[in-house]
Write a structure and sequence with these properties.
Layout: H1 8-18, H2 23-41, H3 44-49, E1 58-61, E2 64-65, H4 71-83, E3 89-98, E4 102-114, H5 115-120, E5 131-143, E6 154-158, E7 164-166, H6 174-181
Parallel strand pairs: 1-6
Antiparallel strand pairs: 1-2, 3-4, 4-5, 5-6, 5-7
Helix pairs in contact: 1-2
Length: about 180
């Protein structure tokens, strides 16, 4: 079993969908599941297909919004995630709340980051060339337009910069190692 389950969040959203009777709320959750699936695959076209024309992200940490604004910036943000190889993650959603305009998810994101990337993102690591499991608690508001497209993400994250674990090579899933070997 891999140390992170990239499609756990998709299954959790789909399980919530199965209990949802309202057609709009069901459709919003289906769009969210497609978005999460595209994130796991690093599929920029798939991500774009879930978004409104001018998405506006608000990603809050340490009192600052570092979220991208506009389609070009959002696709650039996801392109950067793929470029630094930090898309191998698990979002373990503990709570999903849905209304007419928004889906809210809360849980833990556990991700594998190269040490240099983890350090840049604020974690305390001792080897830039090693791989680490980093975790953060997040709440994400996923707002939707009238057509059922995501108009952005409003995310709030909290993490302990010292709570990281250096991973042994035997723990690294093939989805991660293949990012470095091309195999």
């Amino acid at each position: 079993m891999d140390i992170v389950d990239q499609l756990l969040s998709v299954r959790q959203v789909e399980a919530r969908m199965a209990r949802t009777e309202d057609p709009r709320q069901h459709a919003m959750q289906a769009t969210l599941a497609a978005h999460l699936r595209a994130e796991a695959a690093g599929d920029l076209a798939g991500l774009q297909a879930t978004l409104a024309d001018n998405p506006d992200y608000h990603l809050w940490a340490d009192g600052h919004d570092y979220g991208p604004k506009g389609m070009e910036a959002v696709l650039g943000y996801y392109g950067d995630v793929v470029a630094v190889k930090r898309q191998i993650l698990e979002f373990d959603i503990e709570r999903i709340v849905v209304d007419h305009d928004t889906v809210v998810t809360e849980g833990w994101i556990r991700a594998i980051n190269l040490g240099s990337v983890a350090r840049t993102r604020g974690w305390v690591v001792d080897d830039d060339d090693a791989s680490y499991l980093v975790s953060q608690r997040v709440v994400i508001f996923w707002p939707f337009d009238e057509e059922g497209r995501m108009v952005g993400e409003d995310g709030y994250a909290n993490f302990d910069r010292t709570e990281v674990r250096k991973l042994d090579a035997s723990e690294l899933p093939a989805a991660y190692t293949s990012l470095f070997t091309g195999v």
